């Protein structure tokens, strides 16, 4: 394909590539009111904000750990723990 970029023509070619599979991991949780304490969070070579997003998505799902709308995720990489705070008790 030829693409016009700022009045310059660039030839581009589409190549297939393989996406890496998602990462599965096991968490240990303690539920107390609006908060869930998560321990033994695995060490993954991903940025901390990605881990916070993964934890939030995991606990936002109603079938996972009670679930519900997440207010905050406090993730501590060194201690491999996190505290998930919900808007309402799960």
Helices, strands, pairings?
Layout: E1 2-5, E2 8-11, E3 28-32, E4 35-39, H1 48-60, E5 70-76, E6 81-86
Describe the structure in your own words.
- By secondary structure, this protein is an alpha+beta fold.
- The chain has a domain at 29-86.
- It has one helix spanning 48-60, and strands spanning 2-5, 8-11, 28-32, 35-39, 70-76, 81-86.
- The strands form two sheets. The chain has a four-stranded antiparallel sheet with strand order 3-4-6-5, covered by helices on one side.
- The longest helix is centred in the middle third of the chain and has 13 residues, at 48-60.
- The radius of gyration is 20 Å and the shape is elongated.
- One of its GO terms (cellular component) is cytoplasm.
- Residues 1-71 form the NID domain.
- This is NMI protein.
Q: Characteristics of this structure?
A:
single chain, 4-stranded antiparallel sheet, 90 residues, elongated, two-stranded antiparallel sheet, 1 helix
Percent strand: 25-35%
Overall SS class: alpha+beta
Radius of gyration: 20 Å
- Helix-residue proportion: 10-25%
N-C termini distance: 52 Å
Tally the helices: 1
* Spatial strand order of the main sheet: 3-4-6-5
Assembly annotation: single chain
What's the shape? elongated
> Poorly predicted ranges (pLDDT <50, ≥5 residues)?
none
What do the pLDDT scores average to?
79
Number of strands: 6
The helix-strand sequence is EEEEHEE
Give the biggest beta sheet.
4 strands, antiparallel
Organism: Baryphthengus martii (Rufous motmot)
Protein name: NMI protein
Domain NID: 1-71
Pfam families: NID (PF07292)
């Amino acid at each position: 394909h030829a693409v016009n970029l700022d009045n310059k023509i660039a030839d581009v070619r589409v190549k297939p590539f393989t996406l890496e599979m998602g990462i599965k991991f096991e968490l240990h949780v303690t539920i107390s009111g609006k908060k869930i304490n998560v321990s033994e969070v695995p060490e993954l070579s991903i940025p901390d904000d990605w881990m916070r997003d993964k934890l939030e998505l995991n606990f936002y799902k109603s079938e996972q750990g009670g679930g519900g709308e997440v207010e905050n995720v406090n993730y501590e990489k060194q201690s491999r723990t996190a505290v998930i705070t919900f808007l309402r008790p799960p």
